[in-house]
Amino acid sequence: HRAQGPGPAPTLGPLARLEGIKVGHERKVQLVADRDHFIRTLSLKPLLFEIPGFLSDEECRLIIHLAQMKGLQRSQILPTEEYEEAMGTMQVSQLDLFRLLDQNHDGRLQLREVLAQTRLGNGRWMTPENIQEMYSAIKADPDGDGVLSLQEFSNMDLRDFHKYMKGHKAASSELVRNSHHTWLYQGEGAHHVMRAIRQRVLRLTRLSPEIVELSEPLQVVRYGEGGHYHAHVDSGPVYPETICSHTKLIANESVPFETSCRYMTVLFYLNNVTGGGETVFPVADNRTYDEMSLIQDDVDLRDTRRHCDKGNLRVKPRQGTAVFWYNYLPDGQGWVGDVDDYSLHGGCLVTSGTKWIANNWINVDPSRARQALFQQEMARLAQEGGTDSQPEWALDRAYRDARVEL
Fold it and tell me: How far is CA 120 from CA 124, 172, 337, 394, in A?
């Protein structure tokens, strides 16, 4: 406990945001001393850019080597038994659940309305075939038309549904995400190349050093043959009942849910992929966005194993290239607004070879006051006790003392 509370948090200036101009627009920037880089606009919705040669081949190889030294773990996290038990005892009436799922309010549950609720899959990516198999197993759809009326849904025993899902453990190919990953520290004392990359990202984004330095470490991801990541957004919406993961401890607010508040995603391709592995943006630059239109008949545009070729924009992995985009729309006052639905993206199926990427996420709380308080408190902690006093999520000392040269 401190003897006295902190003074008022400073007011933060507006967040930098690059202008897209138009698709195909190129501009020259100097991110390192000895060469120019070119930023090319790939789409305006989301605001998405590409920078060839952002990393050198040697830097790419070093990042992969450091990740292998540290060790990677499976990315997909399946719900715990406690989560399954909680889902099974949820105090929601069957009628309320039906109304929640029935998005077009026609009194019938189409396959696409059920498919849209990805959390129902218990960590498994549900396809139209999966849903119909489940209906058949628990006798939920007597006429076999793939559509549930309110009466048919009311006749279901939800315990049969949970029992069915629990008894069908997903294979790696059936998961929402099939990859392995680790995190690499980029703060003070990190390998000099890791520090240099973070400084390059700082110059690229034009954001304040406090925001970039206090963001998540570098995530390194390996997708083997058959690897994929179905389409998703990197940031969650912040409602009154949610709080950002990076500021929740400082804010000391009691809310039921937390979410990742990632203002920007900077993605690096660390190798050339033999087959597949593109990054797909299924609805990039669509004139309108409608969640239900993502699933039409048997085509689910979010399914990166089967329908990547139908997405609006696909970026081919090229070693050293970076792509970056904004996950939020501006709020009109220089800060974070609503999540940009057009930032929906995924990793297409790797059909041959291995794909290595890395992610730098730039964390900003949509609450300007909370972000300011967070930065102020982290500065105080660093001043009082150096990096040892920072919270565990901000640090990764696992390989800090390793001496790996290019």
Answer: 8, 17, 29, 32
